[in-house]
């Protein structure tokens, strides 16, 4: 029998049963030529089929068979786990979603299969579009997405230590993925850069933790806002040519003065002076640190030493 | 195309069976298009495989009924496969996050088809989970992106007031925009710059004003499609720096030609210099945490000292 025919019959048998079935029960319920009558080669083929179905996303569950002692593994697919549960998407909704996933491509993610399961996108609605963004989404990112959605813990190695994290937020920003959550090791809120995770990510059981009302969020605020230096508010004069960028970056609320020559004054809370000095120097002579006087003095001394 | 494997076919069939079963004899070509199912393989699988699929004891009443006639397909009695397989959590999340990032860059239209699709996707997720994964493509005004997108789509030129980071100067330029894209948290437009008479890439948050024109352009067939990167193949001048441990970020931040680990967590890195202004910024920021080991004429300590003096002039008034 062809493999495709065997797999279809196997999925049908596991969907149709209300009780978990042992692999021998399953063999009996499939046509005679589906599996080998040799127990060992049957076992190997069955195990591989099971793995391949799981890898495809088929929610195959393993349960003890009631009344067996020692308990035998039984297999089935619960229709409530298997069947699509989304409200059906209309053709225009599906086309818009398809267009969006072409515009913003999560690389290494399967693009067609999810759309087949949503009903397929007909050729006519498929305008060829160039991507406007390629977002890296390898194995680790996909596992973390699933873990965040299903409330599974994620375990991985980070900076040489093994961490088990309850993932709350996964954010792609400034070209990188960040994970924020509750780290079970030292029991604290933490943020991780996904590209610094080394080795594989493993995930725990579904609904393995409770999502708090106020989840830990990813924080990519500028570095100078966090640190051990005494908090001050620094005022920075920025020339007109840098204004679009600086307003985009810090937000309009940071601007305390719009000057007639097109320059602006922005106010920033500073707790890490070295990080702020580094930021100010990216403007070269297009910006001037106005206040407070000691930060201004630090800047002058720094530059004097380089002159 | 290469032949589909059994698993490739299974994926397609598990999606196509419920879709066909729900309809009254769709055309074969439509199934081919929707499920990317080569026609000959689809026909083979319908007539020679699906026909024999069912449940124990495989009597006719326990088998799927498949009819292919007049270029149309009917599937009946496929109760086990009455619904397509559900999207996994990660797949739903990926679609949702990509969709939301697109919705965020297109200003408005909250009742559009994309927004409706996203609402439906979110309905399958737990409360609060829909917002748990987010893709932020880049800061930038949706209005500016909108002007650029329209100009790209219509092939019309735009006039931009642009600040060049490399030259540290602003100028008004007319550009023929070929494409726009987000990369590493910023939006860019690439196209032909009339001022430079060459293809250039512009970062949207360095455009202080942008005006659409009704001047059309025709895009050359040879227009470069690739994102522009700083080449590390020796085309640019190089400087070699020695960095303290606290300045290791340089290696992550910028393209380089190689890193050598030294004692006490120091390292030596060789960097391509895309413009003297870029190197000035870097050297001023690093200050005493870096040493210049090798630099071509004009890109060494003189450059750094000159830049420091220029910035100091602001403070000395």
Report what the structure shows:
The complex is a heterodimer of chains A (307) and B (317). Chain A is α+β, with helices and mostly antiparallel strands. Chain A folds into four domains: 3-82, Arc Repressor Mutant, subunit A (Orthogonal Bundle); 91-136; 139-203, SH3 type barrels (Roll); 223-306, Alpha-Beta Plaits, CATH 3.30.70. In chain A, 34% of the residues lie in helices and 26% in strands. Chain A has ten helices and 13 strands. Chain A has helices at residues 3-16, 23-29, 39-55, 79-82, 91-103, 112-117, 139-150, 243-250, 273-281, 293-306, and strands at 60-64, 73-77, 104-107, 133-136, 154-158, 161-173, 176-183, 188-193, 197-203, 232-238, 255-258, 264-270, 287-291. In chain A, the strands form four sheets. A five-stranded antiparallel β-sheet of chain A has the order 8-7-6-5-9, covered by helices on one side. A four-stranded antiparallel β-sheet of chain A has the order 11-12-10-13, with helices on one face. In chain A, strand 7 (176-183) and strand 8 form a beta hairpin. The longest helix of chain A has 17 residues, at 39-55. Chain B is an alpha+beta fold and 317 residues long. Chain B has four domains: 6-81; 89-131; 144-216, SH3 type barrels (Roll); 238-316, Alpha-Beta Plaits, CATH 3.30.70. Chain B is 33% helix and 26% strand. Chain B has nine helices and twelve strands. In chain B, a hairpin with a 4-residue loop joins strand 4 and strand 5. In chain B, helix 4 runs antiparallel to helix 5. Chain B is elongated, with a radius of gyration of 29 Å. Chains A and B meet through helix 1, helix 4, helix 5, strand 3 and helix 6 of A and helix 1, helix 2, helix 4, helix 5 and strand 3 of B.
């Amino acid at each position: 029998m062809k493999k495709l025919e065997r797999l279809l019959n196997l999925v049908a048998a596991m969907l149709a049963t209300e009780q978990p079935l042992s692999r021998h029960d399953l063999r009996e319920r499939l046509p005679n030529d589906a599996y080998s009558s040799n127990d060992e080669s049957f076992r190997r083929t069955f195990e591989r089929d099971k793995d391949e179905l799981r890898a495809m996303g088929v929610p195959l569950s393993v349960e003890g068979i009631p009344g067996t002692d020692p308990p035998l593994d039984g297999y089935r697919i619960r229709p409530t786990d298997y069947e699509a549960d989304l409200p059906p998407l209309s053709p225009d909704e599906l086309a818009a979603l398809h267009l969006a996933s072409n515009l913003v491509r999560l690389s290494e993610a399967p693009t067609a299969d999810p759309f087949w399961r949503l009903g397929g996108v007909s050729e006519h609605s498929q305008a060829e579009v160039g991507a406007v963004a390629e977002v890296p989404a390898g194995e680790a990112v996909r596992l973390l997405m699933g873990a965040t959605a299903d409330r599974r813990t994620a375990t991985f190695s980070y900076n040489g230590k093994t961490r088990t994290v309850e993932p709350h937020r996964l954010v792609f920003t400034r070209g990188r993925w960040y994970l924020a959550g509750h780290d079970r090791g030292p029991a604290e809120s933490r943020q991780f850069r996904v590209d610094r995770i080394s080795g594989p990510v493993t995930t725990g059981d579904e609904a393995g933790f409770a999502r708090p009302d106020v989840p830990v969020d990813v924080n990519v605020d500028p570095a100078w806002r966090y640190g051990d230096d005494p908090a001050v508010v620094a005022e920075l004069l920025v020339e007109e040519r840098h204004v679009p960028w600086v307003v985009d970056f810090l937000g309009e609320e940071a601007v305390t003065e719009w000057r007639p020559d097109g320059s602006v004054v922005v106010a920033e809370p500073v707790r890490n002076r070295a990080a702020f000095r580094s930021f100010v120097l990216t403007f070269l002579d297009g910006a001037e640190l106005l206040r407070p006087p000691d930060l201004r003095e630090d800047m002058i001394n720094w530059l004097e030493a380089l002159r | 195309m290469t032949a589909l494997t059994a698993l490739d076919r299974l994926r397609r069939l598990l999606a196509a069976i419920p879709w066909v079963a729900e309809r009254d004899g769709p055309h074969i070509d439509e199934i081919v298009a929707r499920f990317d199912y080569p026609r000959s393989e689809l026909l083979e699988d319908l007539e020679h495989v699906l026909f024999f699929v069912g449940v124990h004891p495989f009597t006719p009443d326990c088998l799927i009924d498949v009819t292919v006639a007049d270029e149309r397909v009917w599937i009946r009695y496929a109760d086990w496969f009455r619904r397509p397989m559900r999207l996994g959590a990660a797949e739903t999340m990926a679609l949702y996050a990509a969709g939301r990032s697109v919705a965020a860059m297109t200003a408005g239209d909250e009742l559009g088809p994309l927004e409706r699709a996203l609402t439906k996707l979110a309905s399958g997720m737990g409360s609060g989970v829909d917002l748990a994964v987010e893709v932020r493509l880049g800061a930038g005004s949706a209005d500016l992106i909108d002007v650029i997108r329209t100009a790209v789509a219509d092939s019309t030129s735009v006039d931009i007031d642009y600040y060049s980071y490399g030259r540290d100067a602003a100028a008004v330029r007319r550009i023929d925009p070929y494409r726009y894209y987000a990369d590493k948290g910023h939006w860019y437009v690439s196209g032909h710059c009339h001022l430079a008479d060459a293809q250039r890439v512009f970062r949207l948050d360095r455009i202080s004003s942008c005006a659409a024109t009704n001047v059309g352009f025709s895009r050359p067939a040879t227009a470069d499609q690739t994102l522009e990167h700083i080449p590390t193949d020796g085309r640019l001048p190089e400087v070699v720096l020695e960095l303290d441990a606290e300045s290791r970020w340089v290696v992550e931040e910028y393209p380089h030609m190689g890193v050598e680990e030294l004692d006490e967590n120091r390292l030596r890195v060789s960097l391509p210099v895309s413009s003297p202004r870029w190197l000035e910024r870097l050297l001023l920021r690093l200050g005493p945490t870096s040493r210049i080991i090798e630099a071509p004429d004009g890109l060494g300590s003189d450059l750094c000292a000159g830049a420091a003096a220029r910035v100091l002039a602001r403070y000395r008034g």
